[in-house]
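Re: that backbone. Tokens:
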């Protein structure tokens, strides 16, 4: 019987796993212990999420008001992609990957946008949310119940505070134990299952199941159990990030979106919290030196913070051959990493932990019934995620550097992505192009990115129709929201003072 689970590694991935498993197994008699090294700090820069995080937090029974106030949370309604297209052709350019569905008002507006020759911004044409983002409005009002939204939204937060917040919830509500120890080795039985974790004091800690949340080191799934790593660095070229935390003023407006600004060898994230900005310069070391990256980061910040020293984070791009081997499952960076674009790290960690919790084995025999299927499903998620992120680069018409030119080479694209892009040059993407339940990025995500980057069908399959009524309805709703929704910071101040309604 599986009676004792060890989650090795804290941080966001470890404590997400603890909450998912704690919630699912609370009445099972299974004991869960999260073991955290006192000497290894978490990466702590994954500060953006996607809307599915709301479902997880609500399922855990977390108060959204408490979460917002304790983790310096701001609302995220979009990713604003800046200069991902050729400036000479398009001038200074941007588009929004919004969290509202593009067909809230029906598919007619998309058809009209295609038929009229794409002169307008796609997200602005079909959505009420684009204008709200550009006016720094919140996605809800103080009267909107927690986890409900007038516009779709996710969160930005302080990653270290979020991990601590999740930890407190898991220990208080799901009886998860928290142990500080340095795990140096493991003992395995003759079948290759881990039976004991050996700490720095030579204590043998007995466990029946191990969740490896040890980060890029993959200390258990990789180093101890020998599961191989599928390197994707030849396809996704960015491999390094340097980050800074930049102070802001209490009356600064807070953009309700992540800003992703492209540069000659990658891109820059810019995330505004209530009292600071998290800024990260993502680049490929093959195409840009560290010194030049530092200089360009400071230039982006107006050379106002040259006294601050950026933190360098090498990125290991790829994923494990298997995420579940014997009685060990990797979650988080030990499982794999794409790069920070589109907040995929927390998304896949949350998905993987939730999937494991749904069919957690009770015996070793049960592992044989569920592990292969788990590996297939999570592996599919990784493949589709790599395709989605790679698409951002390969459909860009930028040619101003070797980085952007090399991203267009098709020899590193998956067959599925090549076929999809060829089809979408002639046919508009449709729901049936995304048939799997495990497509974490679906039709709406692709429409915003493809059409935002002017990747539209050459022979458009559209029908001319009179959509004036739909366009009028959309504009009425936009005008209503402009008058009703508060500014982003105004709502956060009210939540801090009054809290959100529970229902």
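Recovered sequence:
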């Amino acid at each position: 019987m599986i009676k004792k689970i060890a989650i090795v590694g804290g941080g966001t991935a470890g404590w997400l796993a603890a909450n998912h498993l704690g919630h699912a197994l609370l009445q099972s008699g299974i004991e869960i212990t999260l073991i955290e090294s006192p000497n290894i700090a978490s990466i702590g820069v994954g500060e953006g999420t996607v809307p599915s995080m709301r479902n997880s937090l609500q399922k855990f029974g977390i108060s959204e008001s408490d979460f917002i106030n304790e983790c310096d949370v701001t609302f995220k309604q979009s990713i604003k992609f800046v200069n991902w297209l050729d400036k000479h052709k398009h001038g200074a350019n941007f588009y929004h990957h919004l969290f509202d569905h593009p067909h809230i008002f029906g598919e007619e507006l998309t058809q009209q946008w295609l038929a009229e020759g794409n002169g307008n911004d796609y997200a602005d044409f079909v959505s009420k949310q684009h204008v709200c983002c550009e006016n720094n409005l919140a996605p809800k009002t103080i009267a909107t119940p927690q986890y409900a939204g007038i516009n779709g939204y996710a969160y930005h937060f302080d990653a270290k505070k979020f991990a601590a917040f999740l930890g407190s919830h898991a220990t208080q509500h799901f009886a998860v134990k928290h142990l500080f120890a340095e795990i140096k080795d493991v003992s395995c039985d003759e079948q290759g299952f881990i039976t004991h974790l050996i700490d720095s004091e030579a204590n043998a800690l007995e466990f029946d199941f191990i969740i490896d949340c040890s980060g890029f080191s993959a200390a258990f799934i990789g180093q101890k159990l020998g599961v191989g790593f599928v390197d994707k660095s030849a396809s996704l070229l960015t491999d390094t990030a340097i980050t800074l935390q930049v102070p802001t003023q209490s009356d600064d407006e807070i953009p309700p979106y992540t800003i992703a600004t492209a540069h000659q060898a990658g891109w820059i994230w810019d995330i505004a919290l209530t009292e600071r900005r998290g800024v990260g310069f993502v680049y490929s070391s093959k195409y840009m030196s560290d010194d030049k990256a530092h200089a360009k980061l400071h230039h982006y910040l107006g050379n106002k913070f040259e006294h601050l020293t950026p933190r360098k984070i090498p990125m290991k791009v790829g994923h494990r051959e298997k995420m579940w081997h014997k009685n060990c499952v990797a979650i988080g960076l030990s499982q794999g990493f794409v790069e920070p674009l589109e907040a995929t790290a927390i998304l896949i960690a949350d998905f993987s932990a939730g999937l494991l919790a749904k069919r957690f084995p009770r015996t070793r025999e049960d592992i044989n019934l569920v592990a292969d299927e788990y590996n297939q499903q999570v592996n599919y998620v990784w493949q589709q995620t790599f395709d989605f992120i790679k698409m951002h680069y390969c459909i860009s018409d930028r040619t101003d550097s070797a980085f952007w030119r090399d991203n267009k080479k098709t020899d590193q694209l998956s067959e599925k992505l090549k076929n999809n892009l060829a089809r979408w040059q002639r046919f508009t993407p449709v729901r049936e192009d995304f048939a799997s339940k495990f497509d974490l990025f679906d039709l709406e995500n692709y429409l915003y990115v493809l059409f935002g980057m002017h990747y539209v069908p050459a022979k458009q399959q559209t029908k001319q129709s009179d959509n004036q009524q739909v366009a009028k309805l959309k504009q009425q709703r936009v005008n209503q929201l402009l008058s009703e929704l508060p500014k982003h910071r105004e709502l956060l101040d009210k939540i801090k003072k009054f809290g959100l309604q529970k229902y």
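The first strand starts at residue 4 and ends at 8. The CA atoms of residues 23 and 59 lie 8 Å apart.
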